[in-house]
Amino acid sequence: MSATTLRVMVFGERGAGKTLYLAGLFRGMSVSGPGSVFTLQTGEVDRLKLNRIYADAVNPLLKNFPPSTHWQTEPWRFDCQITNRHGTFRPLSVEYLDYSGEMLDPLDARLGMTDEEIEVDPELRALRGYRDHADAYLLMIDGLKLLRMLRGAPELAGWLEHYLSDQLQVMEQRLTGTGGRPPLHVVVSKWDLLDGRMVDGVPVTLGAVAGLVARQPTFAAHLDGRAQDRDAPVRVIPVSVTGPFAALDEETGEIVKVPGRPVQPYNLDVPFTALLPDTIRWRREQLLADTGPSGEGVERKLNRRAALLAHARAFVGSARGPLAERLDRWATRRQNGGSPAMSIATAGLAGELLHQLGAVLDEQESRSRARLREIQEEHQRRRQAVATESEAITLALQGFAVRLAEFEEKNPGSLLGEVLS
Amino acid sequence: MTIVATSRLWPFVIVESRLIVTPDFLARRGGSDPRIRRLLVNAARVDQARGTALHRRVLTVPGEGAYALAYRYVPVPGGARDEATRVMHMAEGVVCDDLDAELTDETLNRTRGYLLGPVRRYVDQGWSGPPLSSRAVLAGESVEPTPWSLGRLAAVVVLAAAGLTVLLLALKRVLGP
Questions:
Q1: Do A419 and A292 meet the contact criterion of CB atoms below 8 Å apart?
Q2: Digit-coded pLDDT (tens) for A161-185
């Protein structure tokens, strides 16, 4: 288990594909591939469960996809792991909460719950607790529903705005406690059903979908708020767990398996990859905003504190990797209600550290656009040389940056609002 | 370990997280306590990776004690699908007052007839109001299916009347004027 854990709240209606996405994410990233820096690991029982869910989904002999999740919450925890001759390093863990989609709207008449029941239900409490202490949000849009809406299904008129508003309202409520909006990744599931499909004579593209999302009135206001407050960016990421293996039967309107077609997962790793870079950049911006109106002035002030900087440099390079502990402390502090009383000393350490990490990201992204393959090979070599927890997290960050740069190059419309630099 | 004939079983069913049929003692206790009303839905956690295999747990009812809980997550009869076009599933099972009872798929098969009517009604027409209460049945006793709904009863009466009319007309033709 690593010292740093990022908690991701996944927002997704019933049927959006939360469970299958998490099973696909784990499946795809738990085995080393070309260019991969680390693998994902989880507990043995969870590994077996996730593998079974994924295997059932892509098994052509089973006619149906896995059923809906029952009324329950279930955290899935994945450790990033780098193993080489020096040992095994787990610089980062990410935890996702999976649950039954109807829990997002317990007032739905189909559930028949009273106000009292909503108040006392332990699973709903768990969901609220997790949601209020998340480090990042993954907002899943059901690709099938989106397609139906684009095609003018009357029952889905206004659905996207309504759905986005409901989830954004929750995020904004949480804002008051922490003073910032964490990274938000809008994940469009079942992308293979949408990609390139003609609707009203126009092909569906990521740019079109991202534009549609950004134009929803509540979402547009949310983006403005993020830009104004220098909060974390919003990314729109199209994903597919099965690729062409699943298709829409136009006659029945059902998603069916098509035996013989390949299973080609698409972009499942991208939301994961963007988590840590977006979180670090966001925390850096938050720190500067917390400590004064002039970011540069604050930096200069902090830089004069030589003793603190020496300490910061020492722990960035130390063999025990306290970097992870620092990140964890920030997360804990935020969970405890923000950091208005953060001391200058702590701010100094955190500021220096975040600037170093931010610089690593910025430099790596610009380099990677030019020499992607070369860098991947370089990462493979460096993977073998990792000897400390700090080196492991630096290498993981560089790997994330490369993958993100690759994704952004192919999908220029995927970033919404102002990007932190 | 086997189930003794005097063990009491209460069938229950949950469809799409909605409790459709619940043991009568839970319904009574739940009248004034929302925690009790949520007890069964919260206790019947489903491990998807186990497919349709039986889940067994202990259900602790505050102020009452512990009960054995056995259920399975299986497709709703009739092949209904949810809005994501997945086959709709239900958690069907029994609550048993004998913690040592060996509850098996066979046990659930026996009580299934009791649940199918309400499930059908939920799928076809939706559900409003509280869940139906199931009475205890002895493990050695046969389980009656759910009493017929008024609609079903009316349909049978109409069909019977139509059949009788046809029969009378046929008789009249055979016997002549």
A1: no
A2: 999 999 999 888 876 555 578 899 9
CB contact under 8 A, A67 and B83: no
Ordered DSSP codes for B56-93: EEEEEETTTEEEEEEEEEEEPTT--B-TTSPBPEEEEE
Smallest Cα distance from B134 to chain A, Å: 19
User: Is the pLDDT confidence value at A91 over 90?
Assistant: no
**Strands, DSSP E only, in A12-159?**
39-41, 73-84, 87-99, 136-141
Q: Which residues contact A272 (CB under 8 A, 6 or more apart)?
A: A25, A29, A94
pLDDT band, residue A308 (cuts 50/70/90): very low
User: How confident is the model at residue A81, as a pLDDT?
Assistant: 92
Residues in chain A with CB shorter than 8 Å from the CB of B18 are 110-112
Q: How far apart are the C-alpha atoms of B116 and B113, rounded to whole Å?
A: 6
* A-chain residue closest to B15, CA distance: A70
Nearest residue of A to residue B131, measured between CA atoms: A112
C-alpha closest to that of B58 among B50, B66, B48 = B66
Helix axes A372-385, A344-370, angle to 10 degrees: 130
Å from B152 to nearest chain A CA? Answer: 23
The ipTM value here is 0.78
Would you give the DSSP letter of residue A103? Answer: G
Nearest CA in chain B to A73: B45
Residues of A within 8 A of B84 (CB-CB) are 14-17, 68, 142, 144, 255
Topology (CATH) of B8-145: Beta-Lactamase (3.30.450)
Is B48 within 8 Å of A19 when comparing Cβ atoms? yes
Determine contact: B63 vs chain A, CB below 8 A.
no
Instruction: Please give the CATH number for the structural domain made up of A5-268.
Output: 3.40.50.300
B82 touching A (Cβ < 8 Å): yes
A195, A376, B38, B140 from A243: Cα distances, Å: 10, 25, 39, 51
Indicate the domain borders of chain A: 5-268, 279-416
A251 has a pLDDT exceeding 70: yes
Find out whether A269 and A28 touch, Cβ atoms under 8 Å: yes
- Where do we find the tokens 């969901």? A127
**Predicted pLDDT of residue A105:** 94
Domain coordinates in residue numbering, chain B: 8-145, 147-177
Rounded to the nearest angstrom, the minimum Cα separation between B144 and chain A is 27
Nearest to B82 among A52, A68, A116 (CB): A68
Q: Which residue has the tokens 């007890």?
A: B39
What value, to the nearest 5°, has the Cα angle with vertex A148 and ends A144 and A150?
115
**DSSP 8-state class, residue A14:** T
